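Re-run with default settings, no changes from the original entry. Doing this only to confirm the output is reproducible before filing.
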Amino acid sequence: MELNIENVEQLTLNISAGAKPGLAETLQGLGFLVKRNTVAGECDCEFCTAARAVTTAARTTVSPAAADKALTVPRLGAFWPEQGGINAGLMRGVDGQPDYYQIIASGDAGEVADIAWAGSSCDSGDTAATSKQDGLANTKLLAESALDFPAARWAAGLTLEGHSDWYLPSQRELALCWANAPEAFSKGYHWSSTQSSRNGAWCQYFVDGSQGNGTKSAELRARAVRRFIP
């Protein structure tokens, strides 16, 4: 192959460190100005420099998924500012649902001292709020019912720390709260959203951790929770 170059005072070639031995010397003998790069496979021309900058930026960009993995979770029982409540730990999802963090409403506004599960004049009978796991589903069923379910309706109507998705915890969610953040609850019995029988519902005793059946018309304590799916 023949190379003809006319009217060019100087032609500079960038030779990588990985080039074949003797190539640079051969080109220099032909009158080319040869620049050697110290890193194999690199060229310091404008195009290659820009390309390397783009590659480096792509490697250092954090994807949304990676950002989620870098989520900072406070210790159990500590207030989680972004979630508006106290971290009670990770609740296992069931029936194909994702795991989620249980967040307990903090302060006086997140708890009510004396409230019934069902109104005294309400013959609630059997309801569909029987999930031992999903307090959110239980609460929606009760709060949207035409019958009177004060505790669930109270929790569903809360807006605290910028969040309005609070609900009455289920039997198992209350057990998690007792295990990981009992100090967030006043001592005494607290309603769950889980019906136990036609006339009763499950409650958690925040003294010794036991659970029992309370008469629906009895006035017990209740504290709201919400969930965060990471």
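Confidence is low (pLDDT under 50) at residues 1-5, 7-13, 54-63. The two ends are 63 Å apart (CA to CA).
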